[in-house]
Amino acid sequence: MSYLDRSFFQNPLMEYFKWLINKSKYQLKYWGKHLRIGYKSKVFNSDFDVYNWIANDVILINSSLGRRTYIQSGASISNCAIGAFCSIGPNVIIGPGKHPTTDFVSSHPSLFSNPPNLMNNFVGESVFKNYDEVNIGSDVWIAANSIILDGVKIGHGAIVAANSVVTKDVAPYSIVGGTPAKVIKFRFSDEQIASLIKFKWWEKDDDWIRNNISLFWSIEKFVDNINLKL
Predict the structure, then answer these.
(1) According to CATH, what is the number of the domain 6-95+131-187?
(2) pTM of this prediction?
(3) How confident is the model at residue 1 (pLDDT cuts 50, 70, 90)?
(4) Where are the domains of the chain?
């Protein structure tokens, strides 16, 4: 079956209006929650909380963002649940999709699925699931140009160094880097990490954070203070 080559109809003006319609749809839906979607970013079937910021040229598909999480320019994110207070750096790719590597004779999608972009396929419906959801905790920083593969879970407070490829789960409050990413170190002591995970400061309201903001500048003071309340 042949498909119309839609690239003939693409032009800057049409792309602008498509972006404007998409942006307006979401920002009206989340009116009062201070959602911002940057120029030429594309958002599909995704959910937001409050104070989410999407920079320019971002693709966000089938995903959700927690409170105050932001995404820098050029990121591409699919099938991902992201917690609160997360920082997603520029050109990060999350959930790029999967191809079969065993059992199936070929890794080419036309032989096991029916994607429209390939125009002519050998099956009418997919016999291979080409994605798994990625789950990212709260207070996570994923630095520039990193790739997070399908099905990975990243714990609260973790940091992924720039240019990393994450192929397996990341422990809470660890710093990982490299290709494939490996643990470089943990940000805090085991006792401090346990207190942070139990307390879940990212679930506190803005007033609590504002009234205790100076505690965030010292892990020792923060943990000493919250341990009195646990």
Answers:
(1) 2.160.10.10
(2) 0.92
(3) very low
(4) 6-95+131-187, 188-230
